[in-house]
Amino acid sequence: MKIALLGYGKMGKSIEKVALDRKHEIVLKIDYNNQHELTTENLQKADAVIEFSTPSSVLTNIQHCFNTGVPIVIGTTGWYEHIPELKVQCEAGNNTLMYASNYSVGVNIFFKVNEVLAKIMNNYPYYDVQVEEIHHTQKLDSPSGTAITIAEGIIDNIDTKKEWANILIADTPAEDNLRADQLLIESHRIESVPGTHTVIYDSEIDTIEFKHTAHNRNGFALGAVLAAEWLKDKKGFYTVADMFNFSI
Ligand SMILES: NC(=O)c1ccc[n+]([C@@H]2O[C@H](COP(=O)([O-])OP(=O)(O)OC[C@H]3O[C@@H](n4cnc5c(N)ncnc54)[C@H](O)[C@@H]3O)[C@@H](O)[C@H]2O)c1
Predict the structure, then answer these.
(1) CA distance 99 to 82
(2) Helix (H, G, I), strand (E, B) or coil at 103
(3) Are residues 68 and 84 in the same domain?
(4) CATH number for the domain including 133?
(5) Is this structure's pTM higher than 0.70?
(6) Residue 187 CA to ligand 1 centre (angstroms)
(7) pLDDT above 60 for 163
(8) What's the domain range around 28?
């Protein structure tokens, strides 16, 4: 396949390596410094776009892809409040889009088991639940998109939790003033951490911890390239769950 990369930072570079290993060709690379090269003519050279840029540039990049008709795989996080309107626009224009807060196989297995665990824990309300995430200090959004997906998997299955609330733990200790129906997502920023997520169920009797640790960015990059391959000849608005479709 001919692939265009929108965003050529840490993830764009990892994706390029995986795509070349899988015998794909990179026909366009757009980063902050060469945005003028993002033209219809250049995008039309690609069979698929893989977009890992910034929350402030992703929506413009999606519009360029919709205008050109090229399928787009979005990895950028921090824009999810726009999903409903983009889904309508994507389907009305007969376009193709996949988004995921996390493309790694391991994390998507984690998402699935997280939902099953939450269903079980819903029967034991004396456990309180919270989510912790750790990422590198350059990460722009907080909480991570992955932590939001984990939190949604818990809120959908635990009756006592209605919404999530985020605390970014910087140098100062967090104020603990959450309501009982709010699910705490605690965000930590530590140099060089690619992504660690933990779900903690705590009671007076014991603690259950369920944890995923990414060792590097290769899992995200491979999942994004697999998504571009999977979208070939498809139309519509997808999430990565449509591709993995784990059954138990
Ligand atoms: N879904 C996933 O699996 C997954 C995994 C890792 C990271 N991410 C997300 O991907 C995004 C990128 O992560 P990263 O670690 O590569 O960040 P990064 O800061 O290393 O790279 C982002 C790049 O986007 C470029 N950029 C800025 N404006 C642009 C524009 N208008 N058009 C194109 N490029 C532009 C920047 O110059 C930078 O090189 C973040 O939102 C991050 O949260 C998602």
Answers:
(1) 12
(2) coil
(3) yes
(4) 3.30.360.10
(5) yes
(6) 19
(7) yes
(8) 2-103+217-244
Q: Are residues 158 and 201 in the same domain?
A: yes
Using the mean position of ligand 1's atoms as its centre, give its distance from the Cα of residue 130 in Å. Answer: 27
Q: Is 2 annotated as catalytic?
A: no
Which residues line the pocket of ligand 1, CB cutoff 6 A? Answer: 6-12, 30-32, 35, 52-54, 57, 61, 75-78, 100-103, 138, 220
For the chain, the average pLDDT equals: 95
- Regarding whether 80 and 112 lie in a shared domain, the answer is no
Q: CA 188 to CA 181: how far, in whole Å?
A: 22
Give the strand pairing for 128-135 and 196-202.
antiparallel
For ligand 1, the distance from its centroid to the CA atom of residue 157, given in whole angstroms, is: 31
Q: Are residues 159 and 70 in the same domain?
A: no
Q: Is 64 a catalytic residue?
A: no
Task: Report angle CA 20, 24, 29 to the nearest 5 degrees.
Answer: 75
- Counting the structural domains of the chain, the total is 2
Distance CA 195, CA 144 (A): 9
Same domain, 16 and 81: yes
Q: Which atom of ligand 1 is nearest to the CA of 55?
A: 41
Both 87 and 127 in one domain: the answer is no
- Annotated binding residues, written as ranges, equal 31, 75-77, 100-103, 136, 145-146
Task: Please report the atom of ligand 1 found closest to the CA of residue 33.
Answer: 37
- Would you mind telling me the total number of residues written for the chain in this entry? 248
Q: Tell me the CA–centroid distance for residue 54 and ligand 1, in Å.
A: 5
Residue nearest to atom 3 of ligand 1 (CA): 102
Q: Does 155 share its domain with 90?
A: no
Same domain, 109 and 189: yes
C-alpha span between 213 and 193 (Å, rounded): 9
Mean predicted confidence (pLDDT) in 19-47: 97
Confidence of residue 171 (pLDDT cuts 50, 70, 90): very low
